[in-house]
Amino acid sequence: MSRENQPLITPPAKPLLIVLSGPSGAGKDAILTRMRESDCPLKYVTTLTTRPQRPAETNNVDYHFVSAEKFQEMIERNELLEYASVYGNWYGVPRKPIKQALDAGQDTVVKVDIQGAATIRKILPGAVFIFLVPPSMAELKQRLKQRHTETPIDLALRIKTAEKEIKQLSSFDYVVFNRQGDIDRAVSEIQSIVTAEKCRVARREITL
Q1: Distance of alpha carbon 133 from its chain centroid, rounded?
Q2: How much is the pTM?
């Protein structure tokens, strides 16, 4: 067989770290829940938080709910990939489960806020950054109001913060619109992004 006719051999795609972010009310939790239900072959790493657990949330699924003391201990032991204070509560991404999943060859997804995504980009620029957002600010405001989980003052703060966060769109690799009543479309688009990344000629490098 001539060299021209030999099959093209490329190394297998390396595992991806997918960072899903977006403003409060974008539907990040709902998207991840639907992805789990649809058996997307991903490792889901749960964020830690010191904020109170909401009635509809499940510990160790939506978040790992921990005390402020426990959170501080993890900071001191360098067990968090990134952490930040958001709306008066601490949020952080555990380092160990991400490293274990990537070392095992598993594509991994983590949910963070805009500030957390910026921090991870500095540490792991080879990650895939996806910005999730409703199609309009009007819809985002309506979703936040319908949650009934914040006081009027806190709600106004979240809306004001979301308006600023949307301006950070250009720092992400992809944008996915989470339209009301069409969550499966958003999930399908995220799956398509993963497929496209697996077909890249220039492979992403993640060293953790």
Answers
A1: 12
A2: 0.87
Residue 124 amino acid letter: L
Angle at 40 between CA 121 and CA 84, to 5 degrees: 30
b/e 163-200 (16+ beta carbons within 10 angstroms → b): eebbebeeebebebbbeeeebeebbebbeebbeebeee
CB distance 108 to 102 below 8 Å: yes
Q: What is the CA radius of gyration of the chain?
A: 18
| Angstrom distance (rounded) from CA 69 to CA 166 | 32
- Residues paired with residue 26 on neighbouring β-strands, in sequence order: none
Residue position matching structure tokens 């005390």: 67
Architecture of domain 13-198: 3-Layer(aba) Sandwich (3.40)
pLDDT, one tens digit per residue, over 122-156 is: 999 999 999 999 888 888 888 888 877 778 888 88
